[in-house]
Write a sequence for this structure.
């Protein structure tokens, strides 16, 4: 299990990949949002991602086609993950740069451009490649 958090720690992630981190793809999406956040993302359709957030710390931002929710920390502004609702539940691609996952340090993301995708092919790619995810608001331990 790989653990990380946004800059202020209000949003924590626990990523359990099905393979070693070095064997996972690392993408550098070329959209304006991801470039401005310095995002490096990964996903594993056979893994699991748990996101725990302090109450009120999350903001879900949508842009472009508005099909994806970008999960951003309200406190520190870090982009944590992109989320979609699939037929079997929530799926995500995790921003390993934003959540400071050390297992990906030193790796360079493969540039990814999705401008030519149709809505249908974009959804099919995400359903096939993104990680099953849970998002829970939890109060920190006293």
């Amino acid at each position: 299990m790989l653990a990380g958090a946004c800059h202020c720690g209000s949003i924590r992630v626990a990523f359990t990949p099905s393979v070693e981190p070095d064997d996972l793809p690392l993408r550098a999406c070329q959209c304006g949002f991801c470039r401005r956040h310095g995002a490096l993302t990964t996903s594993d359709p056979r893994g699991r991602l748990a996101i725990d957030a302090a109450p009120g710390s999350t903001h879900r931002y949508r842009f472009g086609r508005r099909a994806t929710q970008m999960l951003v920390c309200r406190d520190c502004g870090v982009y944590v993950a992109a989320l979609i609702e699939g037929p079997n539940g929530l799926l995500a691609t995790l921003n390993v740069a934003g959540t400071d996952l050390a297992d990906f340090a030193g790796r360079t993301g493969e540039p990814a451009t999705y401008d030519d995708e149709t809505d249908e092919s974009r959804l099919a790619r995400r359903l096939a490649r993104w990680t099953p995810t849970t998002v829970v608001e939890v109060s920190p331990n006293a």
User: Anything to note?
Assistant: The radius of gyration is 14 Å. The chain has a mean pLDDT of 92. The CA atoms of residues 43 and 129 lie 7 Å apart.
